[in-house]
Amino acid sequence: MRTDLLSAVFPAMLKISPTSLIVPVIATVLSGCGQPSHPSPPRTPKVRVVRPIERDVTEYAYFTGRTAAAQSVDVQSRVTGYLESIDFEPGAEVKTGARLFKIDPRPYQATLDEANSQVHLAEARQKLAAANYRRALEVAKTPGAITQQEIDRDNARLSESEAAVAAAKANSESAKLNLQFTDILSPIDGVVGRDLLTVGNLVSQDTTLLTTVVSEDPIHVYFDVDERTMLRVERLVGEGKIPVQNKKRIIPVQLGLADEPKEYPHEGHINFINNQLDTSTGTIQVRGEFPNPAMKEGGPRLLQPGLFVRVRLPIGPSYKALVVPQAAVGADQGRKYLLAVGENDVVEYRPVTTGPEQADEMQVVFPEKMVRTSDGLRPAHDGDQNTVESVTAADRIIVGGLQRAHPGTKVEVRHNPGDDR
């Protein structure tokens, strides 16, 4: 019954002879036996290495701040009147004493003329009073010709006329100043803003804002320093590690702009430290001063008031240290380490302590004490003899292929281009 079923379902299959099935299988087996296969050996990992660099480094504290003009003036009028002219180009540089606006001077000229006339009138009355007093003194030489009361009266009139002259001159000087104040001048060297009022408008004394003028060179930068950094700097000053000139602390400071993410090319110094900390933030306000010359003759200046900037404050003097690329530093449960290629091109684990990061993407590393054994390097313990540094300038530090490098494995070394040490 089973045979009949198979014959119905697979008629062609039952017609195949056993010999025809065996021959291909034997051929396949023999062909495989003719070319035996062997597993290929594992390839040696390739890594790229560099040598640590020994150079002078400085520890820095980093802050953010804002630029501000060293001098900034809101230009207002000292007299009331109608605006007659605007005598500057908005945004242009102006010098001290340059006229910015002109107020109609005619009312003040008339007041000055009147005041001068009052001076002349008072001087004429003074001359008459002086002459009367002199005559009274001459007449008094003749006994009984004039009474003492009359002499005292003439003397008082002379004093009164002298006071009137002084008052008239003061009024004249005030009128003269008001006339001069119709010329609104720039009080500082700097850049003038736009005119906030057009010709013909009424300008109110000490009320109407006409424009602003801000100085450009030097420029100030304000930033907040935390109290821990402040105390450290104060101690360094006390130890003489930060120079003091003319009893003033000359603390250098560097500045970087938004388009200079890795650089701090602008050099300045701190010229003000506030007299108390802000208790709500635990910081103290500090001001740096930076030169801001024109980028070319007659051209603009780079630093403008109101810029967001990064500030780098050196903490202590420079010292010699090893630096490696930041990409070479690994972390293992909070401990920092480097992978180095040792003897026979075998990878070794080198623990280090990291220092400050450098602006060129380099990292300061401080070696730890190690002991070399037959099994490799191990951390030194108290009492160990013949200790070695975990990292030296002669070591080969892995910076490329770190994912394929493991302590104890052999690698193929490639140096950075140009590194022939």
Radius of gyration: 46 Å
Mean pLDDT: 84
Q: Give the number of helices.
A: 6
Largest sheet: 9 strands, mixed
N-end to C-end Cα span: 88 Å
Q: Unreliable stretches, pLDDT < 50, 5 or more residues? A: 5-32
Question: Can you identify the CATH class of the domain at 60-68 and 216-318?
Answer: Mainly Beta
Count of DSSP E strands? 28
Structural class: alpha+beta
CATH architecture of the domain at 60-68 and 216-318: Beta Barrel
Mass-distribution shape: elongated
The percent range for helix content is 25-40%
Q: Assign the CATH topology of the domain at 60-68 and 216-318.
A: Elongation Factor Tu (Ef-tu), domain 3
Q: How would you name the CATH homologous superfamily of the domain at 60-68 and 216-318?
A: Efflux pump adaptor protein, beta barrel domain
Strand residue percentage: 25-35%
Describe this structure in words.
With 421 residues, the chain is an alpha+beta fold. Among the domains are: 112 residues, Beta Barrel (Elongation Factor Tu (Ef-tu), domain 3); 75 residues, Orthogonal Bundle (Helix Hairpins), CATH 1.10.287; 96 residues, conserved putative lor/sdh protein from methanococcus maripaludis s2 fold (Beta Barrel), CATH 2.40.420. Helices cover 26% and strands 35% of the residues. The chain has 6 helices and 28 strands. The strands form 6 sheets. Strands 1, 2, 19, 20, 21, 22, 23, 27 and 28 form a 9-stranded mixed β-sheet that branches. Strands 3-12-17-16-15-18 form a 6-stranded antiparallel barrel. Strand 20 and strand 21 form a beta hairpin. The longest helix is centred in the N-terminal third of the chain and has 34 residues. It is elongated. The protein starts with a helix and ends in a 6-residue tail after the last strand.
